[in-house]
Amino acid sequence: MSPASAGGAAADGEPASRAAADPDPGGRPKLSVSLGVWQDWPAAEVVRTAEVADALGYGEIWIGEMATFDAFALGAVVAERTARAALTIGPLAVAVRDPVMIAMGAGSLAELTGRTATPLTIAAFGRGAVRVAARQADRMVINLVTPKSAARLVQMLHDECRAAGRPVPPVAAWLAAVVDPSAAGIEQLRWGLVSYLSAPGYGEMFAEAGFGDVVRFARTRPHPGELLAAIPPEIVGHVSLAGQAQAVRARLAEYANAGVDEIALVPGSSEADPAGVATLTALAP
Question: By the 8 A CB rule, do 153 and 145 touch?
Fold first, then answer.
C-alpha cells in the first residue's frame, strides 16, 4: 500500500477549496480513493481500480509511489483512462525526490494531460511534520491511524496552526478498506502492517490499542514471516476499514468525529474482490 513517511508530499489535482469540502451531514467524511500497491497482487491492477473509482463518482484519486510504478508515469495512464476524478500524485518520499523534481513531474503531467496540479498536501505523523504541514500545507494527510490517534494529530495541527496564525487545512486519512473481507483479504491487510509495528510512533499507537506484546516482539527484529504469524487478525480493524458495509460506514463516522475531513480508501485486492471493485461499489459516494 501507499507509504506515509512523515514529510512526504503530494501534488493535488484540484483547487484547495474543493479539497476542503465539509464531511456530509450524516457524519461520513468525504471519500476519495488511493491506489494501493499490494505486494501479493499484480501492480498493474491499480489502473482498473482507478477506472472503477472514476466511474463510481469518487472525486479524487491518489497515485502514490513505492517499489513498482513511477507515480508520474502511472498518473499519465490514469489521466487517459479517467474523466471526472481529480488526480493527486502522492505520497512522494521527499528523501528520494527533491522539490525541483516533484515540481517538474507535476508540471509535466499537468501540461501533457490537461489536468491541473497546484495545492500541496503534506503527510505527517510526528510533531515536526505536523508543524511543517501547519505552516505550508493546503491539506495534511495521515496514514494507518486509529480514530484516537487521528484525533490527537488533528488537535496537534490545530495547535500548530494557531501558533503560526494560519487557518487549519483539511485533514485526510489513508485507510485500507475491504468490505465483506475473505480470509485472503484479512491476510493482505495483516501483511500491510508488518513494516509499521516497530516504527516509532506507530508502535506506540498499536500498543495503546492493546497490542503491546506484538510491538515488543516486532522491535526484536524478527523475520517478517515470524512477525506476520504473531499479528492477530483483529488488529487490522483498529487501523483499517474491514467488515460489512454497515460496520465500515459506522467506522467512517468515528474518523469524522475525530476531526478527519476526508478518507482516502485504499481498497484491498484479492481473488474475492479483484481491483477492490466490490469494496468501492459498496462505499461509493
Answer: yes
| CA distances for 185 relative to 46, 144, 191, 192, 226, angstroms | 16, 17, 10, 11, 19
Residue 54 covered by a domain: yes
Q: What is the domain extent for residue 118? A: 9-183+242-268+278-282
The answer to whether position 156 is within a domain reads yes
What's the confidence (pLDDT) of residue 88? 93
Smallest CA-to-CA distance from 263 within 10, 8, 15, 27 is with: 27
Model's pTM, two decimal places? 0.88
- Residue 115: which CATH number? 3.20.20.30
Burial of 181 (0-12, 13-18, 19+ CB in 10 A): buried
pLDDT digits over 183-205, tens only?
A: 999 999 999 999 999 999 999 99
In this structure, is residue 204 part of a structural domain? no
In a domain, 226, yes or no: no
How many domains does the chain divide into?
1
